[in-house]
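Researcher: We plan to redesign the surface later, but first we want a full-length starting point. Tokens attached.
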């Protein structure tokens, strides 16, 4: 049990580090997206300024473009602050100095995380074999089974045998009478062997019978608890695996959606160059593109987190990250 608790504690610590790292990478990817969006918005703002000077757009359109640019600057500033907060959170989890500098990837791809996706049947079998919570419940049931055996043995006949060998000189065993006199009852010569038997027969031992009944009840309750724990674990693995499958489908849809949204933005920018659309419409399309890109990043992180949950359910989370414990 102590080993299971130790492994569970280390696994939780590793999980906190991974979650903090994924949050940092998500903030970094969102920051880069915001930066690129701000750069494009700034270029569009300067184009609008030149068009205003040339009399090609109304002052209201220019003010709209200026307000959009300032809004995007504010969003980028907030995202930069969020990136710094996530960085400090990771530093704290790692136990490093706040002045420490770590390098984080700009893009986190599934191929970079060498975490396998097992089949559902393998995930369930591995979870029943390695899951810390389930194994702890199973060990507890074995303890209750030992208590039943112990209580049953307490009601059995007990036969004790005693054997003695006198290595010294002749010895005499005395017993003290009521008057205080010592009366010899047994004399043992040197080298003489003696033996004795004692038989203990429990007759109507109500206390021992009560202990046996209590132990049996606890054991039956333990079996019910174990069956419930097994059902809960299997259901959790199945639910997490189903969510992981849904995440993969969502990522495929996100890739297509982002690609199409970028095409729509390019068409809108081309129309804006030739005065066929307003800056407000272009800004709206750009904001939709930004939202779609950030949603794609969020879904990527959710996929990684759900994949980690599946391995945590399976109980092989430390092995995934090549961590070996020494007890």
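Model: Full-length starting sequence:
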């Amino acid at each position: 049990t102590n080993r299971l608790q130790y492994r569970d504690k280390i696994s939780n610590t590793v999980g906190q580090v991974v979650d903090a790292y994924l949050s940092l990478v998500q903030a970094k990817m969102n920051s880069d997206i915001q930066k690129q969006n701000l750069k494009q918005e700034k270029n569009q703002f300067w184009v609008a300024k030149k068009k205003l000077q040339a009399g090609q757009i109304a002052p209201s359109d220019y003010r709209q473009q200026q307000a959009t640019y300032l809004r995007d600057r504010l969003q980028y500033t907030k995202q930069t602050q969020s990136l710094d907060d996530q960085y400090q959170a990771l530093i704290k989890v790692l136990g490093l100095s706040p002045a420490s500098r770590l390098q984080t990837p700009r893009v986190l791809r599934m191929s970079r995380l060498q975490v396998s996706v097992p089949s559902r049947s393998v995930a369930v079998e591995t979870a029943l074999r390695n899951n810390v919570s389930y194994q702890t419940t199973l060990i507890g049931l074995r303890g209750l089974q030992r208590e039943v055996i112990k209580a049953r043995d307490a009601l059995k006949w007990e036969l004790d045998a005693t054997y003695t060998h006198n290595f010294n000189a002749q010895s005499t065993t005395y017993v003290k009478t009521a008057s205080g006199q010592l009366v010899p009852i047994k004399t043992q010569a040197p080298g003489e062997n003696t033996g004795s038997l004692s038989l203990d027969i429990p007759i109507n031992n109500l206390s021992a019978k009560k202990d046996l009944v209590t132990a049996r009840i606890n054991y039956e309750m333990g079996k019910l608890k174990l069956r419930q724990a097994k059902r809960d674990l299997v259901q959790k693995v199945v639910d997490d695996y189903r969510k992981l499958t849904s995440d993969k489908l969502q990522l495929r849809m996100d890739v297509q959606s982002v690609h199409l949204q970028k095409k729509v933005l390019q068409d809108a920018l081309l129309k804006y160059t030739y005065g066929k659309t307003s800056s407000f419409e272009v800004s709206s399309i750009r904001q939709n593109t930004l939202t779609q890109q950030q949603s794609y990043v969020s879904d990527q992180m959710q996929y990684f987190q759900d994949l980690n949950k599946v391995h945590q359910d399976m109980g092989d989370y430390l092995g995934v990250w090549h961590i070996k414990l020494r007890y």
